[in-house]
Give the backbone structure.
Amino acid sequence: MSEAKVTLTVEDLTLAIQNSIEDEMMEEDHAYILAQHILNFFGYSDRIIDNILEPEDRDTFYMLEDTGILTTEREETTLYDGREWRIHYWLFRRERILELMGSVKTKKAAEVADSVYGELPDDIWVRSK
């Protein structure tokens, strides 16, 4: 029995994009807008044809390829007149997206833990009899 594929949400992709930026975290609003833009191309699919992209969108896709969120694939076919035809596709790398999502959730959980527990005195953990 095959495992059902979970739909990638805007929130999921936002988390992955936020954590994919090396130097500094991308603002959540900007990452959310970028995630919406990317998902508008893919819809419920994991693969789209490259021909639908405008040059500025393709630049964004290349940026996400550098982070590991997207990858490319090509298919070759022979036309009826004998010529070879190449079709280029963009694909989500779900395993990388899940990895990036987990990293962001872990960082956010650590920040919350630091903020909540950091203010407690050390003797709060001592049991009284």
DSSP finds four helices and three strands in the chain.
